[in-house]
């Protein structure tokens, strides 16, 4: 029987995304991926500089940094950005409202992304909600898997875009439907089209039944990579054929699923 790490390698996923609120990100060195993306989940959960430096010395590390957040603002307070390892790459994002105060949310995004890309020309730019601005920077694109991803990637390539496209997707390496819905049902239910299709007050985990279960079971396959390693590998190959260069997998059941 293949180990979790061997199954993860078989998928063709290129990189792993870790969330510091959920795990000790130093586990990155034990995972079978050369590239590691660490998400930003607020100042209180920013890993210590020495931990990040150790990961950067052993892996190609990229840090998600919100350009509107105090400490990372290239047109204002960038004190925290200055503490990050010099050899760590960036994934530049506007920043989720959950991690920004009212003043930060009012900051203009476009000039800050432009300044940050000038400072980090090899950065990836997170596109969710700011697709046109992200593309205008000319930097590599960091997209979230959705039901329109294949079509969008092909259109982007046909239009002549030759830059880097990295694709972020939650992953569950399991073909048990209840396990998949327990890990990804709530995440998927927050997507607009899914939320509108779900019956009111329906369960969104493995206990979902009827219409809710049908909607969620279809939707998790639009917004995530699920199934055994072979099934996920086939889906990853489709996404790369459509135009993705790098697929970044977030282990929705924790990093041990990849170790």
TrEMBL record:
Pfam families: DUF7388. GO terms for molecular function: oxidoreductase activity, acting on paired donors, with incorporation or reduction of molecular oxygen. This is Luciferase. It comes from Halarchaeum nitratireducens.
């Amino acid at each position: 029987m293949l180990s979790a790490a061997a199954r993860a390698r078989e998928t063709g996923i290129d990189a792993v995304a870790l969330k510091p609120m959920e795990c000790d990100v130093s586990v990155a060195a034990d995972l079978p991926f050369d590239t590691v993306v660490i998400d930003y989940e607020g100042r209180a959960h920013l890993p210590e500089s020495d931990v990040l430096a150790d990961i950067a010395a052993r892996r190609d590390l990229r840090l998600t940094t919100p350009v509107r957040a105090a400490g990372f603002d290239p047109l204002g307070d960038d004190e925290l950005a200055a503490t990050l390892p010099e050899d760590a790459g960036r994934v530049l994002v506007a920043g989720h409202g959950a991690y920004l105060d009212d003043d930060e949310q009012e900051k203009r995004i476009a000039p800050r992304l432009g300044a940050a890309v000038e400072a980090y020309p090899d950065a990836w730019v997170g596109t969710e909600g700011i697709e046109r601005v992200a593309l205008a920077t000319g930097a590599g694109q960091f997209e979230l898997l959705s039901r329109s991803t294949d079509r969008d990637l092909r259109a982007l390539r046909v239009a002549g875009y030759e830059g880097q496209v990295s694709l972020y997707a939650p992953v569950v390496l399991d073909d048990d439907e209840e396990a998949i819905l327990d890990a990804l049902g709530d995440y998927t239910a927050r997507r607009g089209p899914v939320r509108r299709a779900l019956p009111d007050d329906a369960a969104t985990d493995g206990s979902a039944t009827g219409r809710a279960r049908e909607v969620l079971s279809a939707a998790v396959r639009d917004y995530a990579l699920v199934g055994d390693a072979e099934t996920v590998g086939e889906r990853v190959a489709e996404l790369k054929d459509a135009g993705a260069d790098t697929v970044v997998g977030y282990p929705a059941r924790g990093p041990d699923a990849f170790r």
